[in-house]
Amino acid sequence: MFRQKWAGHTFSRRAFRLALAWAFSIGVACHAPSAHAWGNDGHRIINRLAASALPADVPAFLRSEAAISEIEYLGPEPDRWRSPAEAELSTAQAPEHFIDLELADKLGPLPHNRFDFLAAVYAAGERPEKIGLQPWQTDEVWERLKSAMRDYRELKAAGKDTQPVEQAIIFYAGWLGHYVGDGSQPLHTTVEYNGWAGPNPHGYTTSHQIHYEFESEFVSANIHVAEVQADVTPVQAIEGDMFDAYVAYLRRTATYVEEVYQLDKAGGFAGAGTAASRAFTAARLAAGASMLRDMIYTAWRESAQPVPDRYAGQ
Ligand SMILES: [Zn+2]
Question: What's the 13 CA to ligand 1 centre distance in angstroms?
């Protein structure tokens, strides 16, 4: 799978020169395989652990073994949309798996509305598919989940059949899990997504294999559910605005970018890796599972709130 991107900024002479350097290095990187964040196995682990750890006040259907299995299956679902057999879909959804925060932040504070971000990107002479749309996609799928949960509550209260909406909720929860999982992979938050670009005083790898080796080969060979489960945090509803909370989660993930390269330099993602690389990877997967579980739980709680009157104040 190929992720094509470049950078071409016009904000200042210095930024422009840096952008040219990035464009060169990333232009080479676009021929590298990448972008199946966490690979099949990592996404399945994240989704299974999140669904398995939902608290008892979430409806039983969503905690059933059948639902957990379906949510696990859906972990890699958006990566199944990368086939050349569905070329338009593959292209349109590719930017929803990542965001290069260094590039996005040059445009100012991240707006909540996807189209406000797109307008800012185009106004700067950029292309959104080169920067990424991760937080908007994730927040919008989370809102779909919350909407379906609100419908579930209404049907339940009316004594009607809830089975059809239960299917929708399970799908949205599993679909959401993919993006939240991508968001715990440091290389999905940075221009350094597949080989170090730009100044490199520490001699980190510039190989365009690191992304795949870390998230797919290494995880599949070395990381198991039990190790990740040990690092899953206690359930906690998310307070405040979900978009803001999700961006804060992405920024925490981004603080681990350099550590990925340090571990790689120490041989951490070759073969069985090192104790440090295995612990690091399990902790990152657990961060994804914990956030996903908390987002599903928060959607459930917030789905009980009355819908604001859209005509209020008019
Ligand atoms: Zn992805």
Answer: 34
Domains of the chain: 13-302 (1.10.575)
Q: Do 41 and 221 meet the contact criterion of CB atoms below 8 Å apart?
A: no
Sign for the pseudo-dihedral over CA of 182, 183, 187, 189: positive
Please identify every stretch of the chain with a pLDDT value under 50, giving residue numbers as ranges. Answer: 1-2, 4-34
| Distance (Å) from CA 129 to ligand 1 centroid | 14
- Residue 151 CB-density burial (10 A; 0-12 exposed, 13-18 middle, 19+ buried): middle
Picking from 111, 108, 136, the residue whose alpha carbon sits closest to that of residue 124 is 108
On average, the pLDDT of the chain sits at 90
Q: 201: exposed, middle or buried (C-beta count within 10 Å: 0-12, 13-18, 19+)?
A: exposed
Contact present, 79 and 33 (Cβ < 8 Å): no
Ligand 1 centroid to Cα of residue 149, in Å, is 24
What share of the chain in percent tops pLDDT 70?
A: 88
For the segment 114-146, what is each residue's pLDDT rounded down to a tens digit?
999 999 999 999 999 999 999 999 999 999 999
17 contact partners, CB below 8 Å, separation of at least 6: none
What number of CA atoms fall less than 13 Å from residue 34's CA on the CB side? 27
The number of residues making up the chain comes to 314
Cα 273 to middle of ligand 1, angstroms: 23
- 180: CB partners within 8 A, 6+ apart: 46, 50, 138, 288, 291, 292, 295
